Amino acid sequence: MSVFSAPKNAAVVAGIDFGTSNSAVSYIDLQGIFHSVLLDQGNNAMPTALFFSSEDERIMFGREAMQHYLAGTEGRLMRSIKSLLGSSLMEEQTVVNGVAITFFDVLVIFIKELKARAEKSLGAKIDQVVLGRPVHFVDDHPEKDQLAQDTLGKAAKAAGFQKIGFQLEPIAAALDYEQRLNQETTVLVVDIGGGTSDFTCIQLNPLRSAQANRSQDILATTGVHIGGTDFDRLLNLAHVSPQMGFKHKGTSGREVPSGIFFDLSTWHLIHQAYSRKSLHSAKELRSDFSEPLLHARLMQVLEEQQGHRILASVEQAKIECSVHNASSAIELSSIGHQWQGVAPCLDADNMKKTLTEPLQNIVNCAQLCVNQAGLTQVDVIYLTGGSSALRPLIEVLQEKFPHSQLVHGDRFGGVAAGLAYAGQHLL
Question: In this structure, which long-range contacts are made by residues 290-295, counting pairs with CB atoms below 8 Å and at least 24 apart in sequence?
């Protein structure tokens, strides 16, 4: 527990890190005491997931949502809503339990739940919020990037917040890390989230932590639209999708169409693979397969809507491999008898091989940030974000910055903590 000076506006400001894969909330109360909200089953991070149950029409969130979906409860799972920000999909309608709602409505429901859980922790209403945002919601498209921020702000307003501010997620992480320093330090913040990788070069000094304007300390910011969900997609395509026919050369000698496999490997697109049109197209591919078992597995996954279960297994194997630095099997036997004995194994080497291109793009973006800051090296590389523990990522960063100290922050709560701290000065 940390103690700061009381907020200048005498109101509690929530810091919300609304993430592609996980979300977190923090606040500093009127006594200046910092709180990381235990959002979900005693954890300060909650999977950005909603489950709309068809059985009792309840809406479940986070781990409960995933647990009910994986247990086979009838309903609709939604994940990675953040990936839709800045796109026209946010205003499109989808049918949930027979009712048409927009994805924007789903976004509001989730943020409203984060607000309610923070208020339950505080025991009072919270009307002000600082929301984190990546350096780029949408790469190389300023108009869509601004639309994404505006949409997120509009959703926060619809969820009940009266006063709303924004801070770059890597800067928020830097402000959190600064509380643990006792001298001036040049830091490259590496924030690897579910949908984006963001970088900030910044001069940190605890003696300046109370200053409202820290712009003179920010040396450079860069970002790229690559994150943990991209890792999941690529690992799925490389290690699981071939068991359903991805890159399979059929009876004609040509590869079977790949679109269905990309949908099944992308969290926010999986539901498209279950449409009547997609199912019909997949059935029509049967004659293109020279190995009937591959097509049978594909149809089982589509007809029983097992895409989220597979991707969750890939994600879990990725996490276990990274955290324990050991090989980990992708558990698939629970899908059905067609999958018995199919257990692709992930290890640091094959993950690095599969993820070579995105990891190189991430490291290049980190190097660009250091270059734009006019530096050749930094004192510390501060790692935060849910995907920052990825073992191959740590290895390539160490290779690129051999003279910098690597410091691991709170992967899920660090950005939210920095946003709460920033809230004392931004609003």
Answer: 290/248, 290/249, 290/250, 290/251, 291/245, 291/248, 293/338, 294/243, 294/244, 294/245, 294/248, 295/245
